[in-house]
Specification:
- The chain has a 5-stranded mixed β-sheet, with helices on both faces.
- By secondary structure, the chain is of the alpha/beta class.
- The protein has 2 domains: 1-120, no CATH class; 123-168, no CATH class.
- A hairpin with a 2-residue loop joins strand 6 and strand 7.
- It has helices spanning 30-36, 81-94, 151-166, 170-176, and strands at residues 23-26, 42-44, 58-64, 67-73, 100-103, 133-136, 139-142.
């Protein structure tokens, strides 16, 4: 029995059919996966999963809010466009009713005019295919064609923006968050947006 098929302690009975899962969440790096699984409100036992032909992914399944979500567990030492494309294709062979697949990554702080820092969530309204752009010393250059998400997702982004403009219910958020759930470092290294990191060099505050 593989790790992905072991029964989770206290796991709930899963939905009866893979057709009930409509959302896919792809993790490419283990560090992304470690944080992503914390988003589940409920996690289900995976022993019921019958994989599609050729699907070698390992999955976590559960509920986030009102949505049933499938999340892959990434293998160590793999990354890149080919890997992500294969994960998405195999995921849909096992869970054929999936409507949307999200690739969720973790980025570092990026101090700029609109200060983006660790812990912020960035939603993109457009999609730039992998290897269709490049970062240079003079800025980001687009070498391919931008893709646009389905209208239903664009509408969802608009609704999220409306909620932010109306103001968040901070008191409710505080009540739902355990004081011990978040650990912050005592010190943090911040860099100017124009700072160029040398590959393999040790990070130094600038």
């Amino acid at each position: 029995m593989s790790v992905s098929q072991e029964k989770l302690p206290g796991a709930l009975k899963p939905p009866n059919s893979p057709l009930e899962y409509l959302i896919g969440w792809i993790c490419i790096l283990p560090n992304e996966y470690y944080e992503a699984i914390k988003m589940f409100d409920e996690r289900y036992d995976t022993t019921h999963i019958v994989r599609g032909r050729g699907d070698k992914n390992s999955y976590d399944v559960g509920r986030i809010g009102n949505h049933l979500v499938v999340m892959n567990c990434p293998a160590c030492g793999t990354s890149g466009q080919i890997r992500a494309t294969k994960i998405a294709s195999d995921m849909k062979s096992t869970f054929p009713a999936i409507r949307f697949v999200f690739l969720v990554g973790i980025g570092g702080a990026s101090p700029f005019r609109r200060d983006v820092r660790l812990g912020d969530v960035v939603l993109g309204a457009k999609v730039l295919p992998y290897m269709q752009g490049r970062q240079t010393d003079h800025g980001f250059q687009i070498t391919g064609r931008e893709g646009v998400p389905p209208p239903i997702l664009q509408t969802a982004i608009t609704r999220l923006g409306a909620q932010l403009r109306q103001g968040l219910n901070l008191q409710k958020a505080i009540e739902m968050t355990s004081p011990n759930a978040i650990e912050r470092p005592e010190t943090d290294n911040l860099y100017k947006a124009s700072y160029i990191h040398e590959l393999g060099a040790r990070a130094v505050s600038r």
